[in-house]
Amino acid sequence: MQATLAEEWPAFEAIHQQPSFTSIRLNPGKQKAYDLPKIAWTDFGYFLPERPSFTLDPTFHAGTYYVQEASSMFLEQAVKQTVDLTRPLRVLDLCAAPGGKSTHLLSLLNPESLLVSNEVIRSRASILSENIQKWGHANVVVTNNDPKDFQRLNGFFDVMIVDAPCSGEGLFRKDPKAMEEWSEDNVALCAQRQQRILADVWPALKRDGILIYCTCTYNEKENEENVGWLVSEGKGESLKLNLPVRQAGVESDWEIEEIVKNRIFGYRFFPHKVKGEGFFISVLRKKEEAEEVSMRTKTQLPMVSKKIAERVNEWLLHPHHLILLDDLIVALPEQFSTEINWLANNLNVVTKGTAVATLKHEKLIPEHAAALSLELNRNQFPKIELSLDHALAYLRKETPLIGEGQKGFALVTYQTHPLGWVNLLGNRINNLYPANWRVRMGG
Ligand code: SAM
């Protein structure tokens, strides 16, 4: 780094003694805007003056925002500048947990698009699924697959994001432990793994499809060399992104380094130049032919009966394709039922669409994902607005006495944002917050 940065090295070294910034990205489906300093390259990102306890904020659990460092939000520029977002798109986020890029993509894509959000490590796929449910969209499938499994999906995707596992040099300030894991051998290992990931997933991209490759590391082996490999093999062309023109004497938030080398464009973020952590991003357009796989499947996902479908669709703002998985009723956007059925036959799907209710002896028990869904027709349910203390008790899965005298399912809210369900039993309540999501906090 010292050799590459030359006279900038002291500033780079010094910034590592400074605390990193805390930033959040709001969920435009749930929250309009914040009165906070904005992050320049995204419509949804804000800096916080200090790091609060997010655990103690019920609106965090309601999915009104996601905690994410600022440089990563540049994904929005890469997408907006290279993808026609008015078209219905099939998008793959290959290395998606815990869900920063996927939730961001859901805010950018039009509702006619479908996102496949994949994570290879099972435990991390569960966290990903939780964060996706909090975001509230139904046009998404969470999968738990190895990159090579996507070879079955030849030419299926219009856009792919590969936020590859890397040596994490850009995280040394935020997470000093990352330094202990760094070695030259590890960099070489990461670079090899990244190339394998790219080679495995590449066939699943359409001709003229867009691949966005990013890492949170600086070295060329894991960045330029991997992108360069796809370009030199003639598989893709690297795309230039627009950065605002620098004006002499004017301090800019966009002090992003543009790398132009061997027909590739890359964008590197240094913490001594931008208000964010280290990051690298590059965009490619596929030049090779890729015949699209035909979506033929033997099995169909079982649909719910017409009678039940009518009742469930009343809970939703728009009619959905409703399937029954054992006793779980899941809502899929009508236009993707074929795609999702086919994906379920070809990949290890963790969650798809939005789980709306469990069917028990003809009775519908609302699912937690429905409470957090942007598709929920809230007018169908009694709502109970909670105080901060009651909201935190609810999230700890305690049973604060609320809705006394009332009976039936009710939606509990905090500052009008749904947190989940309770079943009111007259003189006591059943807290339906998912046991494995229970918030652990002192006091
Ligand atoms: N995109 C995520 C976000 O914005 O929240 C962060 C992704 S993180 C940089 C890289 C992810 O790749 C991790 O979740 C990790 O488990 C996953 N991963 C690790 N090894 C992998 C492999 N061989 N193939 C694909 N993904 C892998």
Summarize the structure.
This protein has 443 residues and is α+β, with helices and mostly antiparallel strands.
Describe the protein's architecture and organization:
- There is one protein chain.
- The chain has helices at 2-5, 9-15, 58-61, 75-82, 100-108, 122-135, 177-180, 184-201, 224-232, 306-314, 337-346, 368-372, 388-395, and strands at residues 22-26, 45-48, 65-67, 90-93, 114-118, 140-143, 157-163, 205-215, 236-239, 257-261, 264-269, 279-286, 321-325, 328-332, 349-352, 354-360, 363-366, 383-385, 407-414, 417-425, 429-431.
- Helix content is 25%, strand content 26%.
- The protein contains 13 helices and 21 strands.
- It is globular and about 70 Å long.
- S-adenosylmethionine (SAM) binds next to helix 5 and helix 8.
How many strands, what sense, and barrel or not for the largest sheet?
10 strands, mixed
CATH top level assignment of the largest domain = Alpha Beta
Looking at the overall shape, the CATH architecture of the largest domain is: 3-Layer(aba) Sandwich
Please name the fourth-level CATH homologous superfamily of the largest domain: Vaccinia Virus protein VP39
Which kinds of small molecule does this entry bind, naming each only once?
Answer: S-adenosylmethionine
